[in-house]
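Its record is retained below.
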Amino acid sequence: MRQQRWFGMNARMGTVLSGVFTIVATDMYLIFEQKYIRRNDCIDNDLQTQSASDMVEQFIICWTFSIVFFLSFVTIIISCFLLYSVYAQIYRGLVTYIIWIIFYETVNIVVQILTNNDSVTEEVRAVRWFGLLSRIFMHCFWLFYVISYAHIIYKSQSQGNIISYNRRISTGNGEFLRLKSKIVNFTHRYSE
């Protein structure tokens, strides 16, 4: 059976390119954004006068670089696991990648909103938003391939399990085959 192609790529090739794109884009994000997400002016303000939402916002702003670095490190590891999952045809690895990328981009949107302050010029803010939105749209494009390939792997593995199950039954002894035929006959009578 010939695999379907979109934009000249089949689902497997698109999934591999998705992993490579994520690794490269994450590295570029860390390189270009570290100047704007690093905070040196985080001072412990009076915690009793702040509301809970202000405290959470202050925590995220002060620890942004550490949060983004940790998430980026995990993203690179999950992208490498995606590449291995394509090689080994493990659909759970592809599903893990899909869930993680959605979580990762959601956190990056929150970080972008919280670190967009007045100390950065308007042009820099526009370029940061353009970079984030471009990466999100590219991830959506590549996720189509990952979802398609995960579906292909899942279908092939479930069909393989059914075939191997029937093969195990047919290689059994004659007594087991009679039991199977009785079960099949019972289900035919019961359905009529």
Summary: The two ends are 36 Å apart (CA to CA). The helical segments are 11-37, 52-62, 64-88, 91-115, 122-170, 174-191. Confidence is low (pLDDT under 50) at residues 186-192.
